[in-house]
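Narrative of activities, Objective 1.

The group set out to show that a structural description can be obtained from nothing but a protein's sequence at a throughput compatible with the screening campaign. Below is one input-output pair from the validation batch, recorded exactly as produced.
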Amino acid sequence: MTQARRPKVVVCRAIFPAIIEGLRQHFEVVDNQADVMWTREQLVAHLQGCHGAFTTGGERIDAGVLAACPQLRVVANMAVGYNNFDVPAMTAAGVLATNAPGVLTETTADFGFALLMATARRVTESEHYLRAGHWTRWRYDMFIGADVHGSTLGIIGMGRIGQAIARRGHHGFGMRVVYHNRSKLDAATEAACGASYVSKAELLQSADHVMLVVPYSAESHHTIGAAELAQMKPSATLINLARGGIVDDAALAAALRAQTIAAAGLDVFEGEPKVHPDLLTVPNVVLTPHIASATTPTRMAMASLAADNLVGYLTARQAKTPLNPEVIGSAAAQERMARA
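Output recorded for this entry:
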């Protein structure tokens, strides 16, 4: 009897070796542990003959890639965000898309507060000052920042992470929490978060600290631009944990230089890993390289969930966190399976 051929999957970036070994129990695996940044053409070349792909958020999967890779059935993102996926195109092509929500909520909320506190208390500025040898004496006004406790926290985007940040602010720091979201939360959830719904304009005008946790989409592009920054308090801080493109980085750099707002903390950027050069020349901004979920347990959980989605779909037509579950059992998906 001829042994059935095992499905083939490609892991597009370096990940934990244990995850690779786990995938090898089920699949023929092409890995990229050298962590080479593939071009679009190289990605397509590596996907040839593959049934599944493990992506990390930077690999663009669109109609062109799907057309060039007719055997591809599932792409699992090791990230909660999925703006690297053209989900409608994947659905039309019969390719399942999955992400990794939930497992990074608390860790990302922790980092949100780390970034907020570093920004409000001018940690980066003062460290640079000290390292440069400028600190020679104490002054009453040296690197005076803003209080976090008892202040007003405005959250734009009140999903899992936004709610976790709200709970930390309300219960841990005695903050007044206001939020703006596409839809108002139910009363019980608002009470648990100690949060009140307000308009976007009211949030910008009243908050001492504005935290962005909204998913990226065409509608949320440049949620914060020059007009919105002008509405904020001159003493306010802006924190972006969401995605690059939520903030107009050029407008933000100009506002920081003009002290339209006091400071900003950014973990994500337009066009990352490139950073707008003007942001590198203003002192009142804390910059981190997209590390909000970067703890070993959380990154392992994200990778494990992505791997589970690949295994589940390619072996049992099931997935834990599908973005387009209507693909499962669809005619387009059946057509792709027939090409194996």
